[in-house]
C-alpha cells in the first residue's frame, strides 16, 4: 500500500506485525498475543491520526493512488451498467464515464470522472481531466435521463478540467457552463457525490445537484492548493498554507452549506476498506433518492436553482 508521509508511524507498526506473522508462519512460535497488542496500537494510532487531519493531509488522502475511483463504485453499486459514449459532435472523452444501469433495482443514469489506477489507465482517462467533449457528453446523458425520467447520479473526482490549448480552442468554458446549465434545468432527481477531488468548474459541471454528498476525506474547491499558492505566494511550495485558507474539507463545506451531507469513510480512509466504503455510500445515495422520490419535476428544478442562488447570496452578505 502507498504510504503517505503522516502515516509512516502507522506503517512502521504494521510492518512489525507482518514480521511477527512471518516468523509465526515459519515455525511453531505463538505470537498471537503480541500481534493483538500491536494491532490495537495500530488501530488507536490510525483513529487518532485521522481524527485530526489538517486540510493538506486530507488533500493527500483525497489524491491517494489506491482510493476507489468512479469505475470502482459503478462496478460495485450499479447493476447492468451500459456505458454510453461520445458527445455526438466531436469525440469520445474517456475522462468522463457515463451510462445507464440499476441502483438497488432502480434505473439511474450514472456520470462520473475517472482518473485511472495505473499509468496506462491514467493516460487513457487523462487523469480525470475532461475536455469539452466530455462535458458535452455529460450534458447529452443528463438530457437523455430527463427525457426518460431517470434519476441522475454523478461521481465527482477531478483535479479540474483539462487546461490544454486544444481544449480551450474547442470551447472548454462554454462546455462547462452548458453542463452546469443542464444540471440546473433537468426535472429529475440529481444526486452528486464528491468521492475524491472536486476541482474548480470541472467538478461543479457535474456537481450542481439537488443533494450534494461528500466523502469524509474528499476535497472540493475553486482551485487546487498548488494553483492557489502559485497565484498568492508565487510558489507552489505554499500549497499547505493555501489548503488551510481554501476551506476545502467536507467538514468546512458542510458548515458553509455548500454540501448537504458528509459520508463517513472507513478508519484510515476509503482505500483501507473499499467494501465498507461502498456499503456506506450505497446507503447514503439510497437515502438521498428516497428523500427526493415523488417530488414533482418542476419543484425539483426550482429547489435546485434556489439552492445554488442562495450560496451566491450568502457569499455576498
From TrEMBL:
<comment type="subunit">
    <text>Acetyl-CoA carboxylase is a heterohexamer composed of biotin carboxyl carrier protein (AccB), biotin carboxylase (AccC) and two subunits each of ACCase subunit alpha (AccA) and ACCase subunit beta (AccD).</text>
</comment>
<keyword id="KW-0436">Ligase</keyword>
<dbReference type="InterPro" id="IPR001095">
    <property type="entry name" value="Acetyl_CoA_COase_a_su"/>
</dbReference>
<dbReference type="GO" id="GO:0006633">
    <property type="term" value="P:fatty acid biosynthetic process"/>
</dbReference>
<keyword id="KW-0276">Fatty acid metabolism</keyword>
<dbReference type="GO" id="GO:0005524">
    <property type="term" value="F:ATP binding"/>
</dbReference>
<dbReference type="GO" id="GO:0003989">
    <property type="term" value="F:acetyl-CoA carboxylase activity"/>
</dbReference>
<keyword id="KW-0067">ATP-binding</keyword>
<keyword id="KW-0275">Fatty acid biosynthesis</keyword>
<keyword id="KW-0808">Transferase</keyword>
<protein>
    <recommendedName>
        <fullName>Acetyl-coenzyme A carboxylase carboxyl transferase subunit alpha</fullName>
        <ecNumber>2.1.3.15</ecNumber>
    </recommendedName>
</protein>
<comment type="pathway">
    <text>Lipid metabolism; malonyl-CoA biosynthesis; malonyl-CoA from acetyl-CoA: step 1/1.</text>
</comment>
<dbReference type="GO" id="GO:0016743">
    <property type="term" value="F:carboxyl- or carbamoyltransferase activity"/>
</dbReference>
<dbReference type="GO" id="GO:0009317">
    <property type="term" value="C:acetyl-CoA carboxylase complex"/>
</dbReference>
<comment type="similarity">
    <text>Belongs to the AccA family.</text>
</comment>
<dbReference type="GO" id="GO:2001295">
    <property type="term" value="P:malonyl-CoA biosynthetic process"/>
</dbReference>
<dbReference type="InterPro" id="IPR011763">
    <property type="entry name" value="COA_CT_C"/>
</dbReference>
<comment type="function">
    <text>Component of the acetyl coenzyme A carboxylase (ACC) complex. First, biotin carboxylase catalyzes the carboxylation of biotin on its carrier protein (BCCP) and then the CO(2) group is transferred by the carboxyltransferase to acetyl-CoA to form malonyl-CoA.</text>
</comment>
<keyword id="KW-0444">Lipid biosynthesis</keyword>
<dbReference type="InterPro" id="IPR029045">
    <property type="entry name" value="ClpP/crotonase-like_dom_sf"/>
</dbReference>
<keyword id="KW-0547">Nucleotide-binding</keyword>
<feature type="domain" description="CoA carboxyltransferase C-terminal">
    <location>
        <begin position="41"/>
        <end position="291"/>
    </location>
</feature>
<keyword id="KW-0443">Lipid metabolism</keyword>
<dbReference type="Pfam" id="PF03255">
    <property type="entry name" value="ACCA"/>
</dbReference>
<keyword id="KW-0963">Cytoplasm</keyword>
Amino acid at each position: 500500500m502507498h504510504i503517505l508521509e503522516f502515516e509512516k508511524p502507522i506503517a512502521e507498526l504494521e510492518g512489525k506485525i507482518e514480521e511477527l506473522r512471518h516468523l509465526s508462519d515459519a515455525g511453531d512460535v505463538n505470537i498471537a498475543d503480541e500481534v493483538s497488542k500491536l494491532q490495537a496500537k495500530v488501530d488507536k494510532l490510525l483513529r487518532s491520526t485521522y481524527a485530526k487531519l489538517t486540510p493538506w493531509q486530507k488533500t493527500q488522502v483525497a489524491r491517494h493512488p489506491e482510493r476507489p475511483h468512479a469505475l470502482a463504485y459503478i462496478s460495485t453499486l450499479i447493476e447492468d451498467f451500459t456505458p454510453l459514449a461520445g458527445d455526438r459532435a466531436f469525440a469520445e472523452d474517456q475522462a468522463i464515464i457515463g451510462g445507464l444501469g440499476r441502483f438497488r433495482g432502480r434505473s439511474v443514469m450514472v456520470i462520473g470522472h475517472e482518473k485511472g489506477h495505473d499509468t496506462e489507465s491514467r493516460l487513457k482517462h487523462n487523469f480525470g481531466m475532461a475536455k469539452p467533449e466530455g462535458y458535452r457528453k455529460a450534458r447529452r446523458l443528463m438530457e437523455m435521463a430527463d427525457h426518460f425520467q431517470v434519476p441522475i447520479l454523478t461521481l465527482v473526482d477531478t483535479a479540474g478540467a483539462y487546461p490544454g490549448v486544444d481544449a480551450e480552442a474547442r470551447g472548454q468554458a462554454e462546455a462547462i457552463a452548458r453542463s452546469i446549465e443542464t444540471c440546473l434545468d433537468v426535472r429529475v432527481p440529481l444526486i452528486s457525490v464528491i468521492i475524491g477531488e472536486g476541482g474548480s468548474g470541472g467538478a461543479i459541471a457535474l456537481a450542481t445537484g439537488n443533494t450534494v454528498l461528500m466523502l469524509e476525506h474528499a476535497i472540493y474547491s475553486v482551485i487546487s492548493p498548488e494553483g492557489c499558492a502559485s497565484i498568492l505566494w508565487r510558489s507552489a511550495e505554499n500549497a499547505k498554507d493555501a489548503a488551510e485558507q481554501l476551506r476545502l474539507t467536507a467538514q468546512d463545506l458542510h458548515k458553509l452549506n455548500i454540501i448537504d451531507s458528509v459520508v463517513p469513510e472507513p478508519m484510515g480512509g476509503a482505500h483501507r476498506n473499499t467494501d465498507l466504503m461502498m456499503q456506506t455510500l450505497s446507503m447514503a445515495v439510497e437515502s438521498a433518492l428516497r428523500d427526493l422520490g415523488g417530488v414533482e419535476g418542476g419543484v425539483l428544478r426550482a429547489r435546485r436553482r434556489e439552492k445554488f442562488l442562495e450560496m451566491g447570496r450568502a457569499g455576498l452578505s
